[in-house]
Amino acid sequence: MEFLSPLLLFPLFILGLVLTGWLLLRRVGALLGEKQADQSLLLMQEQIGQLRVQFGQVLDHSRLQGDLSRLRDDFGLPGKHLGHAQSIYQYAERRLEQFGQKLTSADADPKELFEPRSIERKTG
After folding, report:
1. In sequence order, what are the residues at sequence separation of 6 or more whose Cβ sits closer than 8 angstroms to the Cβ of residue 103?
2. What is the pTM of this model?
């Protein structure tokens, strides 16, 4: 060890310290990078959770729209039936009125009582 003088040991010691510091800094940097990656991952998971909630709300809204559409259809069908029933009622009422006029006609011909007149039937 005589060939290693104290002047040579000091720079080797400094070089060893610098090398050790550099390795420690690299490891700390890697750990910080992992921490940032973990934080980014947590942030992405949070954003995914928010998107899931929003997507659920959109699905609920579209389901409600479908329910509303079916309800409108359900209300439209009875309205259609009521419209048809009203037109048939009006047609029958006109026929009854004409028949009553035939019966009350004092000078009506008996043949005329049973002849069908052309009555336009209104549908739809």
Report:
1. 113
2. 0.37
